Amino acid sequence: MAKVTMEWESRLGRRLRVRDLYILSAVARSGSMAKAARELAMSQPAVSEAIANLEHILAVRLLDRSPRGVEPTITRELLDAACKSYFVGEAPMPQLPATPKSSARRMDVH
């Protein structure tokens, strides 16, 4: 099976907003879009829209949703690590494995 990589820089272009990454971080940290919305003084639909925008741009699912809240997918964890490295100037945005929306998996970190 061939390894599929996503060319992040070409996919992101000018559509990615740092604000959306910040919102994603708040949602993952709080475990809930509603809690993140309160923390960020935003409406829950605005938070949901920002997450949907990121998922559409990247063509991956970043959060697993359930009635009890959200959990980050492995792709979100990889994106978080890549962004931290990129924003502190340590390295160019790496080629990360693509995870289609339909087959995203959860990674448990202990």
Describe this structure in words.
The chain is mainly alpha-helical. It has helices spanning 8-12, 18-30, 33-40, 44-58, 74-87, and strands at 5-6, 63-66, 69-72, 96-97. The protein has a two-stranded antiparallel ribbon. Strand 2 (63-66) and strand 3 form a beta hairpin. Helix 3 packs across helix 4 (44-58). It is globular and about 35 Å long.
Q: Could you give the distance between the termini?
A: 30 Å
Strand residue percentage:
5-15%
- Text of the CATH class: Mainly Alpha
Structural class: mainly alpha
Which series of helices and strands comes N to C?
EHHHHEEHE
Q: How much is the average pLDDT?
A: 76
Per CATH, which architecture? Orthogonal Bundle
Any key phrases for this structure?
110 residues, mainly alpha, Arc Repressor Mutant, subunit A, two-stranded antiparallel sheet, two-stranded antiparallel ribbon, disordered C terminus
